[in-house]
Automatic annotation (TrEMBL):
The keyword Metal-binding applies. The lineage of its organism: Bacteria, Bacillati, Bacillota, Clostridia, Halanaerobiales. It comes from Halanaerobium saccharolyticum. Signal peptide: none annotated. A divalent metal cation 1 binds at H7, H9, E93, D204. GO terms for molecular function: DNA nuclease activity; hydrolase activity, acting on ester bonds; metal ion binding. This is TatD DNase family protein. Keywords: Hydrolase, Metal-binding. InterPro entries: DNase_TatD-rel_CS (IPR018228), Metal_Hydrolase (IPR032466), TatD-like (IPR001130), TatD/YcfH-like (IPR015991). A divalent metal cation 2 binds at H129, H154. Pfam families: TatD_DNase.
Amino acid sequence: MRLIDTHAHLDFDNYNQDREEVLNRARKIGVEKIVNIGADLEGSRRAVKLAEKYDDVYAAVGIHPHEADTVNQKSLAEIIKLASSSRVKAIGECGLDFYYDNSPREIQKEAFKKQLNSALELELPVVVHSREAAAETLEIIDQTGDFAKKLIFHCYAYGPEEIEEIIKRDYYAAFGGLITFKNAQPVRDALKKMPLNRILLETDAPYLTPAPNRGKRNEPAYLEYIVKKAAEIKGISAEKMGEITTENADRIYNF
Ligand SMILES: [Zn+2]
Ligand SMILES: [Zn+2]
């Protein structure tokens, strides 16, 4: 099976002891590409370095809403500079997180707008992180520009109603370990509604480890459990799900 992990954070310290083995385990189950996502400026630098080191690792550069107060002219200029590497395939992750509220909401909104504008300028797709802020996230995107086919709601954590808005605007949604969690029926119901050509799979490693490995550190090899569960929910074979979501990832990240 050919698979693409569209969202992972292998630059984190969690992998300092065994990064090579983590990559090899992923390759062994058919993960042919991994997009390593920058979560802050330093993480974005590390993401580009990893992508330059490994042929099958690519990068996205951006600043997570948790770190929104670090988005300023200087950090944005560096994000844009990093994005000039041919290994960088998207801007992100950026967005709104009103669950943790680690940065004030107004500052999160400003930081998100700025990064959306950078993506437009650079003609790159955007990886959006949105938690407990569906309406506000959509509002800001709508106000900023046309992102049809060029935007991913990563770690889709909303329900079947919110997915209608995403379908209407022709965005992608990336599904991960959550779909294996007992208490995440609304996410599964959303996946049921999502057209096959707009579904992506991701691990968000080291977070959100899928069943049956919950409690352990997540890693791209566990995409195996996610593709199986997604296939079961959509009523197709895991092979077909792998094939379609890999084509989708190839398309949005322009591999
Ligand atoms: Zn995220
Ligand atoms: Zn992430």
